[in-house]
Amino acid sequence: MLLKINKKPIKLSKKILRITGKTNAEFRLIGEGDKVLVGLSGGKDSLALVHLLKHIQRHAPFSFEFEACTINYGMPDENYSYLVEHCKEQEIVHHVYDTGIYEISHDAIRENSSFCSFFSRMRRGALYSYAQEHGFNKIALGHHFDDAVESFFMNMFYNGTLRSMAPIYKTDRGFHLIRPLIQTRERQLRAFADENHLQTIGDESCPAMLKNVKLPHAREKTKRWLEEMERDNDNIFKMINASFKHIHDDTLLDPSRWVRDDISAHRSLADGQN
What we know:
This protein is of the alpha/beta class. Helix content is about 45%, strand content about 10%.
């Protein structure tokens, strides 16, 4: 299926369109009258996302607005001219939001310390600020299902929590963060970029590349481990997706999540005796 846009038509696979259409309907991510800000880093995921929203905007039975925003860290030689030209060519409203995140990081990050959470938090905060300043009620990020699965196991193995990435949630600042690609596989988005010969921005745009800090080995190890698992069982991601939707709270070790009359009655009796 082709997006009939100005110069170079962008092709989105029917599979991506089907998965994301189902995701939007299932979790009610975008609807009538929404004003959505897309975090556009220039990677394959966020590029796929802006073109997906362009397609939805043209074909959905409801009206909504969306614009793309790229966070400029303030690094030496930081250049987003390709993104600017690409969005202009494809008739996507795009802004580059200048920040001083890189300069701030000189004092905020210690040598040989972890950088991922800092830059992620600062980038997200800048995106939130831009959304608030310009009246957006939703922010869309390009996280895919591989990201969600990797985060789930990283949280389990390194943080001792059962946690992943929600398709939609309300932020403390009052607007919703949405992930329209959350059930799409990373390889599908990589194929999208390759098929359309898109120039993508990778790790070279990360501020950490200019710093003496630890690289995210935990995520890379988790990614490789999952790839090995999938080689042995090509349905494993389908099963993980299903398990994310079939959670049995009463089988876990958190009594606050159990629904059991015998325990609640016992607690009420104990409370009365006290």
